[in-house]
Every structure is written in structure tokens, then in C-alpha cells.
Amino acid sequence: MPAMLSRREPTDAGHGRTADTAARARALPAVPVALVLGGTLLAALTAAVAWGSTSIPAAEVWGVMWRRLSGEAPRPGTNDLIVWQLRVPRALLAVLVGAGLGLVGTAVQALVRNPLADPYLLGISGGASLGAVAAIVLGLGAGGALGLGLSGAAFAGALATFALVWAVARRGGGFAPLRLVLAGVAIGQFLSGFTSYLVLRAGDEQQTHSVLFWLMGSLGGATWELLVAPAVAVPVALLWLLARARGLNALLMGDETAAGLGIDVARLRRELFTLTSVLTGVLVAVSGAIAFVALMVPHVCRLAIGGDHRRLLPVSALFGALLLVLVDIVCRTAMDTQELPVGVVTSLIGAPALLYLLDRRLGSGR
Could you list the residue ranges that cross the membrane (predicted)? Predict the structure, then answer.
């Protein structure tokens, strides 16, 4: 039997190298892909601001933007108010949240070496959701007892969950991916039970509607002030991850290989977990829990440009931003009487897309 195994090992390794070489050969060049995504994103942003219950010509949209940015006095009428105060902050929030979800999904999949992982697997979104639901149901929102506000309560819940998952995952020393995932799943489910209990305690129909809308994700509360936290967190996260792209690539090859390349694996995992937890908390605090984006975006981008994180991270951020802007357009315009939660549309798109991608990967043996 050992002889048989030793004869098979070169064949398996050769097959793996052949598959990797073929995948790299099929990969598209990252710069043209990024340029196409950037141009499409600019067009989608224009459409997101122009389309709605009141349609505004694209030329007028850019005219309002130019006047605001150049310091000119706004013109009288409702178009200026609609464009600058309502639709531009919402479109920019979609860009930031989508880009952040693309980044955090890519980072988490490297952290736990699992292409089916996403940030919600670590339980952080469960803590943020519990904090937000408590703010709605128990009156801890703006003007509430603690004065946290909805976003503040969500972020506080995310940080508390991060500390709890960290403590459980670190028991006995080490920072193994499996222990981290199991701790995140268990604590996330535990917090989900409390969230469900609070939903049952909602005092009226309006509270229940607000809770459900939050749990399914929404960009409807976008304001210029709400953009500050993600506008800082997402670029900082991108720069930090790019600076450690070599380490992320090494993690995918296994801990021993990464350590042999000079990577401090334990330290990198701690930093990755901290970064992804804080960034997830920021994103959930401003938009609620939006499913499938962080899971699906890295898959699509890997199929297009390959798995090198130096290229994958910026392309994932661009594609995530574009996807969420397009989804938000659908959410605002699909129904005349009400707005769809963002998570409903991302789930309807993401579940079939993920099944297709998994079928492709299993069919190709990768």
C-alpha cells in the first residue's frame, strides 16, 4: 500500500499543477477588467441617481453634482434636493457597502481557507443584528436611554460578539480556523435566538416592519453623516489587505507552507479576524444584514482573474460595489407601492449564481 501511494502522489501533484496552470491561462487580465468595472460602475451610479419615483435626466444629475462640488448656489426646485440629499448618499452607501462586502468576503475565505465562508459565518453580523433589533424594540435608538442610535447599537453588538468569539476561539492557545468557525457559528446561532425573541416582543406592526427590514438589509437610511464610518473603514481595509496580499496567498497553500515562506501565520490570522470583524460591524451597522454578496463576489472574481490577492482584492471591491448599486436600483424601482429589502434581491440572485458556480467548480474538479 505505501508503494501504491508513493506512485500515485506525483500524478496527483502533476494534475494539481496542470489544473492551476490551466486556471491561470484562462484568467483575464486584471487591469482591463478593473477599467470595465469602473466605467460600468460610473454609469450605474448615474442611473441610480437619475431613476426613481421622480425621473431626472442624467445631464441634470451631473449639473447638480457640478454645482454642489464647485460651491455654486443650488438652484430652487426639488431636483437639487432629491439628487444631493437623497439619492447621491444612497448610491455612495451602496458603493461603500458593496465594496466592503467584497473585501471582507475575500479576506474571510483566506482566513479560514474555505471558499464557502463569508463574514456572517463568524457570528459578527448576528451580534450587530441583535444590537440593532434591541435598539428598535427596546427603545435604545436615537433619543433612547443609552443614546446609541441604531447604527451605534449595531456596531456595539458587533464588537461585543467579536470579543466573545475571540475569547472562545483562543481557549487553549492557538488560533485554528476550524475552532474560529465553530465558535462563530455557535455564538451566531445563540444570538439569533435572542434576536428572534426580541422580534416576538415587538410592540406594534411598525416595529416589526422595521426589524424585518433591518434583518434583510436596506440602504434607505443613507445620509451624508452615515457615510463617514464606511468611507474611512473600507479604503483603510483595502490598503491593509493589499499590503498583506502575499500573506493571504500563502495562507491558501497551508500553514506549514506559509510559515516556510516567512509568514507569521498566527499573527496574520489574528489581524485578519480583527479587521474583518470591525469592517463587518461597520457595514452591518449602516445597512443591515445583506446576504450572499460577500460569499458570491470573490467566487465570480476568482473565475474571471484568478486567485492572486494583489489583483483579486481591488477587483472584488469594484464588482461588489457595482453589484450592490444595481441591486439597489432594482429594490427602489421594482414595485410602485413599496421598496424591497436589499437582502431579498441579493438572495434571489446569489443562491442560483452560487449553485451554478459550485456546479462549475465541481464539474472541472477544482
Answer: 27-51, 91-112, 119-140, 146-168, 180-200, 212-243, 272-297, 312-331, 340-358
